[in-house]
Design brief:
Blueprint: H1 27-37, E1 87-89, H2 93-105, E2 109-113, E3 117-121, E4 136-140, E5 145-149, E6 159-161, E7 166-170, E8 173-175, E9 178-179, E10 186-188, E11 193-197, E12 200-202, E13 205-206, E14 213-215, E15 218-222, E16 225-227, E17 230-233, E18 237-239, E19 242-246, E20 249-251, E21 254-258, E22 262-264, E23 268-273, E24 276-278, E25 281-284, E26 288-298, E27 301-303, E28 306-307, E29 314-324, E30 327-329, E31 332-333, E32 339-341, E33 346-350, E34 353-355, E35 358-359, E36 366-368, E37 371-375, E38 378-380, E39 383-384, E40 391-393, E41 398-402, E42 405-407, E43 410-411, E44 418-420, E45 425-427, E46 435-437, E47 444-445
Parallel strand pairs: 1-2, 2-4, 3-5, 4-7, 5-8, 6-10, 7-11, 8-12, 9-13, 10-14, 11-15, 12-16, 14-18, 15-19, 16-20, 17-21, 18-22, 19-23, 20-24, 21-25, 22-26, 23-26, 24-27, 25-28, 26-29, 27-30, 29-32, 29-33, 30-34, 31-35, 32-36, 33-37, 34-38, 35-39, 36-40, 37-41, 38-42, 39-43, 40-44, 41-45, ...
Length: 453
């Protein structure tokens, strides 16, 4: 995969100095991915029963529980939902396949899957375990309802949503899918739509994009959990289309390339609200990557993610990003551990906390090579082993701070608070209340007007 913005050579005096030469990554990365790749995908038996048929669906939704920490457990305990009753599907993979086939033929259907049941898929149907969705189909789960690929079966994803397909998943667990290309759990093609509500997408693998979901159409996720999925790009979700994620937890996913939690590219749009992106890892952008496109991240947390190269928490390639009331905390990477912003990217962050991020190179909190505006932010207690404990502003970067605190950050070399490379522009706007103080070994280095020490 080509990520053009990754090819950034810095001609300044703060090049990485790692054992073995160059920017070779540590063994922890290989070991970490091997552990995720080796996850056991458990199997459960299903029992056959009578035939099931589909019928035309009606719309249903509900308001979900408050608080992104409690959202997305996929356990069916998030409250009652106003949903239309459908046709019961007995606990049999063959019956589920037949019911979806019939619903497609009839122009849509609502299917009520069995409680305490694992629909164990054993047959590869054109790359998926279930028939391709081509009409509006709703799969309603219940307590402990799972759709799983048998570990003894050939490798295939679980679901494929094609053009004209509108798939809704309620209270389901999707697990064990393995795709040779995109969408280990679910693939959404152009013209397809997917809605995931109060469900768990876990332990799926894609060799290319989207371990949990690969979205090329429109995908909406609410009150759900993505965990232990793996891909080259977008361990949890990879999206080239329209993606909205609300009250959802995306945790402990991995990407061998970019975007351990979420990866967005090809001018996709991602709206992430009241969600948690935590403990994911990737070669670059452990938490969330926008290679090209638009990101709006609000009332959310990006915590404990790891990137070997750039952007432990968030990486912006050629992106337009807006952050409002976001916590970016305890992420690690080589540089830009909180946020890495490359040229041709713009970022506006308001009321955002960037704290306790650790960089082995430059920019513990922020590494900027684009255009950044910070309003009412706190950049606190970040660490860079080289320059720019709080902020490293590169030679092409412009960063403007309004009513923002840069305090108690540490760098191993220079610019504990802010390091501004020659040619870069830093505007503190101290009249608005911006404070740069208590950083070590100094507050600022380079041309940073109105910065004391």
């Amino acid at each position: 995969m080509n990520h053009s913005h990754h090819d950034h050579d810095h001609d300044h005096d703060h090049e990485p100095n790692q054992p073995g030469g160059g920017r070779t990554r540590g063994r922890w990365w290989t070991l970490g991915l091997a552990g995720v790749a080796g996850l056991a995908l458990t199997a459960a038996a299903a029992t056959p029963a009578a035939d099931a048929v589909g019928r035309t669906p009606t719309a249903g939704d509900r308001s979900s529980a408050d608080g992104h920490r409690e959202a997305g457990r996929g356990d069916g305990k998030t409250g009652k939902e106003d949903k239309a009753k459908g046709t019961p599907v007995p606990c049999s993979a063959d019956k589920l396949i037949a019911a979806i086939t019939l619903a497609n033929a009839r122009g849509g259907g609502i299917l009520d899957l069995a409680k305490d049941c694992t629909y164990l898929l054993t047959t590869n149907i054109d790359g998926s375990g279930l028939p391709t969705i081509t009409t509006p189909i709703t799969l309603n789960g219940s307590k402990h309802t799972t759709i799983e690929r048998s570990t003894a079966a050939d490798q295939f994803r679980i679901l494929n949503v094609d053009t004209g397909g509108k798939l809704t998943l309620n209270k389901l667990k999707i697990t064990g899918g393995v795709a040779e290309e995109d969408g280990g759990g679910i693939l959404v093609n152009q013209g397809g739509e997917l809605t995931v509500k109060h469900s768990t997408i876990t332990r799926n693998i894609a060799e290319d994009n989207g371990g949990g979901i690969a979205n090329n159409g429109t995908t909406r996720v609410k009150g759900s959990t993505f965990t232990l999925n793996q891909a080259a790009a977008g361990g949890g979700i990879q999206s080239n289309g329209h993606l909205s994620v609300t009250e959802t937890e995306i945790s402990i996913n991995a990407a061998t390339d970019v975007g351990g939690g979420i990866d967005v590219r090809e001018d996709g749009t991602a709206l992430v609200h009241k969600s948690v992106v935590n403990d994911n890892m990737a070669e670059e952008a452990g938490g969330l990557s926008v290679d090209s496109g638009i990101l709006r991240l609000t009332h959310s947390e990006v915590v404990g993610n790891s990137g070997v190269d750039d952007g432990g928490g968030i990486t912006l390639g050629e992106a337009q990003a807006t952050l409002q009331q976001v916590k970016i905390v305890k992420n690690t990477s080589f540089q830009g551990s909180g946020i890495a912003i490359f040229s041709d990217s713009t970022l506006v962050a308001e009321k955002t906390l960037i704290k306790n991020n650790i960089s082995l190179g430059e920019g513990g909190g922020i590494h900027n090579d684009g255009q950044v505006v910070l309003r009412k932010n706190e950049i606190v207690s970040n660490l860079a082993e080289e320059a720019g404990g709080g902020i490293f502003n590169d030679s092409d970067g412009t960063i403007s701070l309004f009513t923002t605190k840069v305090i108690k950050n540490i760098s191993g070399e220079d610019g504990g608070g802010i390091f501004n490379e020659v040619g870069g522009t830093v505007n503190l706007n101290t009249a608005t209340g911006t404070v740069v103080a208590k950083n070590r070994p100094n507050n600022c280095s380079g041309d940073v007007p109105d910065c004391a020490g």
